[in-house]
């Protein structure tokens, strides 16, 4: 047989070739690229000079020493980091708040291990991690002094609100999505009305209603601590948006798969748990990760209802006359903390996308 000539095999572009093609393909592109690169280098040098080279790190330094150095005054972090991270939590018990944060972070890390990616295992990990966090923060057992929720604050409170919102909101979102896809019209329409009503409201109004308005319209035996009412409102808001994300993922699953499962006599719960939801979550993974990122950043809104979360603690850190001048450094430090968690979530989402694209489990 005669071999068919399909033409020259295209060469794989080298990194240098891709850079030349993307940034230096024409005189105008070259000029713009050089201008942008020069601007980025200048900004990087200014930040390095301000934040490291001329910065003040000594805990004993104050405004005069920082002004004389001309750079960032990280002394405010050295002196006020406990207030930023722990808020109003009792000073002698702040080790518990630190361990609670480590417990939540460890739970998040364990959730990234593929071996634990089953319903029972991941639920057990989160239940154990969240119970450890709550026991350390609340106390009242195992010889730990009781600390009321009003004294919680800083990073620990931010993580508590975020994890509690996710733990409550995700099962609720799955229930909403399944109910809205129900074949019974009155169930689907009622659920759709609830979801659309919640999504039409800003989160801050829901938090304000749960924290301030509900005590006037509900009996005392129904009400709980204000923190739990706020978490319930946040979880409802999360569930409304996440339900639509999951429903969109479910619409990407071929209907023939469910019909084939029904013809084989597979019960509804198994069709949902083993066929529909796994594919729906795979289809909706980017939007789901984005929703978690948004939820983490929106925890700062609880400051409007009187909670001393991370951003509010940062405001208190430079709120004294001694450190008023160092507000930029405090905000940079808080932004770095937010960046660590948000960047970690986004990278984990990218890892999941790559893993699922190759069909791994």
From TrEMBL:
What is the superkingdom listed in this entry's lineage?
Bacteria
**How is this protein situated with respect to the membrane?**
Multi-pass membrane protein
InterPro entries per UniProt: AA_ABC_transptr_permease_3TM, ArtM/GltK/GlnP/TcyL/YhdX-like, MetI-like, MetI-like_sf
Task: Alphabetically list the UniProt keywords.
Answer: Cell membrane, Membrane, Transmembrane, Transmembrane helix, Transport
**GO molecular function, a single term:** transmembrane transporter activity
Q: Which CDD domains match?
A: TM_PBP2 (cd06261)
- Pfam families listed in its UniProt record: BPD_transp_1
Tell me which GO cellular component terms the UniProt record holds.
Answer: ATP-binding cassette (ABC) transporter complex
Q: Which SUPFAM superfamilies match?
A: MetI-like
Listed GO biological process terms? amino acid transport
Can you tell me where the transmembrane regions are? 28-48, 95-118, 125-146, 152-179, 200-221, 227-246, 292-311, 323-346
The UniProt entry lists the main location of this chain as: membrane
Q: Which part of the chain is the ABC transmembrane type-1 domain?
A: 155-344
Q: Hey, what's the signal peptide range on this chain? A: none
Tell me where it resides: Cell inner membrane; Cell membrane
* PANTHER family linked: INNER MEMBRANE AMINO-ACID ABC TRANSPORTER PERMEASE PROTEIN YHDY, MEMBRANE COMPONENT OF AMINO ACID ABC TRANSPORTER
Stored NCBIfam families: HEQRo_perm_3TM
Q: Which family does it belong to?
A: Belongs to the binding-protein-dependent transport system permease family. HisMQ subfamily.
Q: Provide the protein name.
A: General L-amino acid transport system permease protein
């Amino acid at each position: 047989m005669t071999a068919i000539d399909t033409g020259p095999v295209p060469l794989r572009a080298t990194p240098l070739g891709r850079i030349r093609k993307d940034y230096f393909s024409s005189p105008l592109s070259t000029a713009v690229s050089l201008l942008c690169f020069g601007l980025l280098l200048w900004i990087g040098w200014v930040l390095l000079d301000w934040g490291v080279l001329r910065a003040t790190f000594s805990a004993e330094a104050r405004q005069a020493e920082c002004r004389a150095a001309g750079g960032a005054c990280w002394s405010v972090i050295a002196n006020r980091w406990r207030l930023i991270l722990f808020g109003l939590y009792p000073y002698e018990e702040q080790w518990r708040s630190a361990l609670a944060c480590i417990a939540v972070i460890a739970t998040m890390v364990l959730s990234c291990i593929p071996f634990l990616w089953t319903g029972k295992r991941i639920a057990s990990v989160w239940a154990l991690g969240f119970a450890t966090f709550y026991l350390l923060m609340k106390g009242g057992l195992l010889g730990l002094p009781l600390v009321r929720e009003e004294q919680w604050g800083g990073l620990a409170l931010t993580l508590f609100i975020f994890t509690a919102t996710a733990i409550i909101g995700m099962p609720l979102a799955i229930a909403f999505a399944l109910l809205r896809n129900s074949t019974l019209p009155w169930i689907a329409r009622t659920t759709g009305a609830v979801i659309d009503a919640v999504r039409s409201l800003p989160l801050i109004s829901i938090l304000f209603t749960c924290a301030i308005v509900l005590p006037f319209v509900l009996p005392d035996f129904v009400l709980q601590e204000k923190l739990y009412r706020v978490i319930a409102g946040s979880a409802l808001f999360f569930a409304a948006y996440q339900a639509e994300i999951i429903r969109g993922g479910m619409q990407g699953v071929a209907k023939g798969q469910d019909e084939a499962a029904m013809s084989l006599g597979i019960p509804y719960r198994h069709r949902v748990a083993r066929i529909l939801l796994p594919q729906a979550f795979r289809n909706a993974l980017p939007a789901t990760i984005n929703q978690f990122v948004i939820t983490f950043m929106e925890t700062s809104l609880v400051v409007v209802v009187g909670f001393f979360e991370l951003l509010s603690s940062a405001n208190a850190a430079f709120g004294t006359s001694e450190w008023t001048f160092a507000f930029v450094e405090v905000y940079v430090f808080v932004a770095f903390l937010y960046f660590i968690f948000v960047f970690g979530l986004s990278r984990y989402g990218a890892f999941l996308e790559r893993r699922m694209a190759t069909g791994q489990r």
